[in-house]
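Morning - thymidine-5'-phosphate inputs below, output right after.
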Amino acid sequence: MLVGKLITFEGIDGAGKSTQIQLLEAEFNKLGILYKTFREPGGTDLSEKIREILLDKDNLELYSNAESLLFAAARAQLTVEQIKPAIAKGECVICDRFTDSTIAYQGHGRGLNIKNLEIINNIATEGLTPDITFILDIDPGKASERMRAESPDRMEAAGIDFFQKIRQGYHQIMEQFPYRCIVINAEQSQENISKEINQIIMKRFKEELTCS
Ligand code: TMP
Protein backbone atom coordinates (compact mmCIF):
# COMPACT_ATOMS: atom_id res chain seq x y z
CA MET A 1 0.00 0.00 0.00
CA LEU A 2 1.29 3.46 -0.95
CA VAL A 3 1.60 5.95 1.88
CA GLY A 4 3.12 9.38 1.30
CA LYS A 5 5.29 11.31 3.71
CA LEU A 6 4.35 14.48 5.54
CA ILE A 7 7.27 16.93 5.59
CA THR A 8 6.76 20.08 7.63
CA PHE A 9 8.74 23.32 7.85
CA GLU A 10 8.77 25.38 11.01
CA GLY A 11 10.51 28.44 12.41
CA ILE A 12 9.90 32.01 13.49
CA ASP A 13 8.67 34.55 10.93
CA GLY A 14 11.54 35.55 8.63
CA ALA A 15 13.44 32.27 9.06
CA GLY A 16 13.33 31.58 5.30
CA LYS A 17 10.83 28.69 5.13
CA SER A 18 9.25 29.79 1.85
CA THR A 19 12.59 29.88 0.02
CA GLN A 20 13.56 26.46 1.34
CA ILE A 21 10.20 25.00 0.34
CA GLN A 22 10.66 26.35 -3.20
CA LEU A 23 14.13 24.80 -3.36
CA LEU A 24 12.79 21.45 -2.13
CA GLU A 25 10.01 21.59 -4.74
CA ALA A 26 12.64 22.18 -7.43
CA GLU A 27 14.56 19.12 -6.20
CA PHE A 28 11.41 16.97 -6.15
CA ASN A 29 10.53 18.17 -9.67
CA LYS A 30 14.01 17.22 -10.84
CA LEU A 31 13.70 13.74 -9.34
CA GLY A 32 10.09 13.25 -10.47
CA ILE A 33 8.85 12.84 -6.90
CA LEU A 34 5.10 13.38 -6.56
CA TYR A 35 4.22 16.02 -4.00
CA LYS A 36 1.76 18.69 -2.98
CA THR A 37 2.56 21.83 -1.01
CA PHE A 38 0.28 23.61 1.46
CA ARG A 39 0.67 26.52 3.83
CA GLU A 40 -0.81 26.92 7.28
CA PRO A 41 -3.09 28.53 8.05
CA GLY A 42 -4.51 28.02 4.57
CA GLY A 43 -4.47 25.45 1.80
CA THR A 44 -8.26 25.21 1.32
CA ASP A 45 -10.80 27.93 0.44
CA LEU A 46 -12.18 27.87 3.97
CA SER A 47 -8.77 27.77 5.67
CA GLU A 48 -7.62 30.75 3.58
CA LYS A 49 -10.64 32.72 4.85
CA ILE A 50 -9.66 31.82 8.42
CA ARG A 51 -6.10 32.93 7.60
CA GLU A 52 -7.40 36.39 6.67
CA ILE A 53 -9.06 36.74 10.08
CA LEU A 54 -5.94 35.53 11.89
CA LEU A 55 -3.45 37.78 10.11
CA ASP A 56 -5.60 40.92 9.80
CA LYS A 57 -3.79 43.52 11.88
CA ASP A 58 -7.09 45.24 12.71
CA ASN A 59 -8.25 42.16 14.69
CA LEU A 60 -6.42 43.24 17.83
CA GLU A 61 -9.26 42.08 20.09
CA LEU A 62 -8.71 38.39 19.18
CA TYR A 63 -8.18 36.43 22.42
CA SER A 64 -5.38 33.87 22.54
CA ASN A 65 -7.78 30.93 23.04
CA ALA A 66 -9.90 32.06 20.10
CA GLU A 67 -6.72 32.45 18.06
CA SER A 68 -5.66 28.86 18.89
CA LEU A 69 -9.04 27.47 17.95
CA LEU A 70 -9.06 29.34 14.64
CA PHE A 71 -5.62 27.94 13.76
CA ALA A 72 -6.96 24.49 14.70
CA ALA A 73 -10.10 24.94 12.58
CA ALA A 74 -8.02 25.88 9.55
CA ARG A 75 -5.80 22.83 10.20
CA ALA A 76 -8.74 20.46 10.63
CA GLN A 77 -10.16 21.47 7.26
CA LEU A 78 -6.78 21.24 5.50
CA THR A 79 -6.02 17.83 7.02
CA VAL A 80 -9.24 16.17 5.90
CA GLU A 81 -9.70 17.98 2.59
CA GLN A 82 -6.13 17.90 1.30
CA ILE A 83 -3.36 16.34 3.38
CA LYS A 84 -4.85 12.94 4.19
CA PRO A 85 -6.10 12.24 0.64
CA ALA A 86 -2.71 13.17 -0.85
CA ILE A 87 -0.83 10.96 1.62
CA ALA A 88 -3.24 8.10 0.97
CA LYS A 89 -2.39 8.35 -2.75
CA GLY A 90 1.31 8.02 -1.93
CA GLU A 91 2.16 11.67 -2.55
CA CYS A 92 4.58 13.62 -0.42
CA VAL A 93 3.00 16.54 1.37
CA ILE A 94 5.18 19.57 2.10
CA CYS A 95 3.54 21.78 4.67
CA ASP A 96 4.64 25.31 5.50
CA ARG A 97 3.87 25.08 9.26
CA PHE A 98 1.74 22.50 11.08
CA THR A 99 0.99 21.48 14.68
CA ASP A 100 4.37 22.58 16.08
CA SER A 101 3.53 26.20 15.19
CA THR A 102 0.61 26.08 17.62
CA ILE A 103 2.80 24.70 20.40
CA ALA A 104 5.57 27.24 19.70
CA TYR A 105 3.43 30.36 19.05
CA GLN A 106 0.30 29.86 21.19
CA GLY A 107 1.98 27.67 23.82
CA HIS A 108 5.44 29.17 24.33
CA GLY A 109 4.74 32.58 22.74
CA ARG A 110 1.31 33.38 24.19
CA GLY A 111 1.77 31.22 27.29
CA LEU A 112 -1.27 28.95 26.82
CA ASN A 113 -1.44 25.49 28.39
CA ILE A 114 0.56 23.14 26.18
CA LYS A 115 -1.30 19.97 27.17
CA ASN A 116 -4.57 21.60 26.08
CA LEU A 117 -3.02 22.70 22.79
CA GLU A 118 -1.80 19.15 22.17
CA ILE A 119 -5.38 17.93 22.58
CA ILE A 120 -6.66 20.61 20.17
CA ASN A 121 -3.93 19.69 17.67
CA ASN A 122 -4.85 16.04 17.97
CA ILE A 123 -8.51 16.78 17.24
CA ALA A 124 -7.56 18.96 14.24
CA THR A 125 -5.27 16.38 12.66
CA GLU A 126 -7.13 13.23 13.74
CA GLY A 127 -3.80 12.10 15.16
CA LEU A 128 -1.75 12.69 12.00
CA THR A 129 1.85 13.66 12.81
CA PRO A 130 4.62 14.77 10.44
CA ASP A 131 7.20 12.18 9.32
CA ILE A 132 9.92 14.81 9.47
CA THR A 133 10.02 18.45 10.57
CA PHE A 134 12.68 20.98 9.64
CA ILE A 135 12.95 23.75 12.20
CA LEU A 136 14.75 26.72 10.65
CA ASP A 137 16.54 28.35 13.55
CA ILE A 138 17.51 32.03 13.40
CA ASP A 139 18.12 34.89 15.79
CA PRO A 140 14.86 36.92 15.98
CA GLY A 141 16.77 40.18 15.43
CA LYS A 142 18.22 38.89 12.17
CA ALA A 143 14.84 37.47 11.11
CA SER A 144 13.13 40.83 11.67
CA GLU A 145 15.79 42.61 9.59
CA ARG A 146 14.98 40.23 6.72
CA MET A 147 11.29 41.17 6.96
CA ARG A 148 11.75 44.91 7.43
CA ALA A 149 10.71 45.77 3.88
CA GLU A 150 7.27 44.16 4.23
CA SER A 151 4.35 45.57 6.17
CA PRO A 152 3.93 43.28 9.22
CA ASP A 153 0.73 41.22 9.70
CA ARG A 154 -0.99 40.77 13.11
CA MET A 155 1.41 38.00 14.19
CA GLU A 156 4.59 39.61 12.81
CA ALA A 157 3.79 42.87 14.58
CA ALA A 158 4.50 41.24 17.98
CA GLY A 159 7.87 42.25 19.48
CA ILE A 160 11.25 40.49 19.56
CA ASP A 161 10.53 39.05 23.06
CA PHE A 162 7.58 37.12 21.64
CA PHE A 163 9.79 35.60 18.94
CA GLN A 164 12.54 34.78 21.48
CA LYS A 165 10.00 32.71 23.43
CA ILE A 166 8.85 30.99 20.24
CA ARG A 167 12.43 30.18 19.29
CA GLN A 168 12.99 28.62 22.74
CA GLY A 169 9.72 26.75 22.27
CA TYR A 170 10.98 25.22 19.04
CA HIS A 171 14.17 24.11 20.85
CA GLN A 172 12.03 22.34 23.46
CA ILE A 173 9.94 20.66 20.74
CA MET A 174 13.15 19.44 19.14
CA GLU A 175 14.32 18.00 22.50
CA GLN A 176 10.97 16.25 22.91
CA PHE A 177 11.00 14.75 19.39
CA PRO A 178 14.68 14.40 18.44
CA TYR A 179 14.11 11.89 15.61
CA ARG A 180 11.25 13.74 13.90
CA CYS A 181 12.56 17.29 14.34
CA ILE A 182 15.75 18.49 12.70
CA VAL A 183 17.02 21.93 13.65
CA ILE A 184 18.75 23.70 10.77
CA ASN A 185 20.93 26.76 11.22
CA ALA A 186 18.99 29.25 9.08
CA GLU A 187 21.75 31.84 9.22
CA GLN A 188 23.80 29.92 6.61
CA SER A 189 23.51 30.46 2.85
CA GLN A 190 20.27 29.32 1.19
CA GLU A 191 22.24 26.81 -0.90
CA ASN A 192 23.83 25.15 2.16
CA ILE A 193 20.51 24.92 3.97
CA SER A 194 18.85 23.41 0.93
CA LYS A 195 21.65 20.88 0.44
CA GLU A 196 21.39 19.81 4.08
CA ILE A 197 17.61 19.38 3.83
CA ASN A 198 17.78 17.41 0.56
CA GLN A 199 20.43 15.07 1.95
CA ILE A 200 18.44 14.35 5.11
CA ILE A 201 15.24 13.64 3.16
CA MET A 202 16.98 11.36 0.69
CA LYS A 203 18.81 9.48 3.45
CA ARG A 204 15.63 8.88 5.39
CA PHE A 205 13.01 8.30 2.71
CA LYS A 206 14.58 7.76 -0.71
CA GLU A 207 13.21 4.24 -1.22
CA GLU A 208 9.74 5.25 -0.04
CA LEU A 209 9.09 8.33 -2.19
CA THR A 210 6.70 7.82 -5.10
CA CYS A 211 7.97 8.98 -8.50
CA SER A 212 5.96 9.89 -11.58
P1 TMP B 1 3.28 32.67 7.62
O1 TMP B 1 2.48 32.11 6.51
O2 TMP B 1 3.99 33.92 7.30
O3 TMP B 1 4.14 31.68 8.29
O4 TMP B 1 2.17 33.23 8.65
C1 TMP B 1 1.48 32.49 9.56
C2 TMP B 1 1.54 33.19 10.89
O5 TMP B 1 0.69 32.50 11.81
C3 TMP B 1 2.94 33.16 11.50
O6 TMP B 1 3.16 34.36 12.22
C4 TMP B 1 2.86 32.02 12.49
C5 TMP B 1 1.43 32.05 12.94
N1 TMP B 1 0.90 30.73 13.36
C6 TMP B 1 0.56 30.53 14.70
O7 TMP B 1 0.71 31.45 15.51
N2 TMP B 1 0.04 29.33 15.05
C7 TMP B 1 -0.17 28.31 14.18
O8 TMP B 1 -0.64 27.23 14.55
C8 TMP B 1 0.18 28.54 12.79
C9 TMP B 1 -0.04 27.47 11.78
C10 TMP B 1 0.71 29.76 12.43
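Note: The chain has a mean pLDDT of 95.

O.
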